[in-house]
Write a structure and sequence with these properties.
rod-shaped; single chain; five-stranded antiparallel beta sheet
């Protein structure tokens, strides 16, 4: 029969203690939570950028529809000094004044056409302004495009 010898001396193998393991887990948790925070902020900024790009696209589309003098002067009653109204980009909304919905966001488009003082050589100018607004994270955001048009 063999005898079992139990020794109180360490065997020479090294291992992590419970405290070292707990400290490593805490450090790993802090690093991972900061990385998750960066990704979360990045996705939020990406969404805001997508919304602003869509709003600028709508504003540009409206500006394109009113790019020639005949369209500007025939819209509404431009005999007045100012013509203000809601405008729905016809490709996306059926009735003027309806919000345009893109990617789950409702955009409100407003068009303003106004006379400006007489320019060089007595040219008549019209100021065409497009405002597109939407609500994102409880805050109303707006992009504006403005141009001056004249008949030449």
């Amino acid at each position: 029969m063999e005898k079992l010898i139990v020794s109180a001396k360490p065997s020479g193998k090294k291992a992590f203690t419970l405290i070292e393991t707990a400290v490593a887990i805490v450090i790993l948790t802090i690093v991972l939570s900061s990385i998750v925070g960066v990704f979360s902020k990045g996705f939020s900024l990406l969404r805001m950028s997508q919304e602003k790009t869509a709003a600028l696209g709508l504003a540009q589309g409206i500006m394109e529809e009113f790019s020639d003098w005949d369209t500007i002067t025939s819209w509404g009653d431009c005999a007045d000094d100012t013509d203000v109204g809601n405008f729905s980009y016809s490709e996306y909304a059926s009735d003027p004044g309806d919000p345009v919905s893109l990617n789950g966001v409702n955009y409100i488009c407003a068009l303003t056409i106004a006379d400006v003082p007489v320019g060089i050589n007595n040219n008549v100018f019209k100021k065409v302004k497009v405002d597109v607004s939407w609500t994102s994270k409880g805050k109303t955001r707006t992009v504006t495009m403005l141009t001056l048009k004249t008949e030449y």
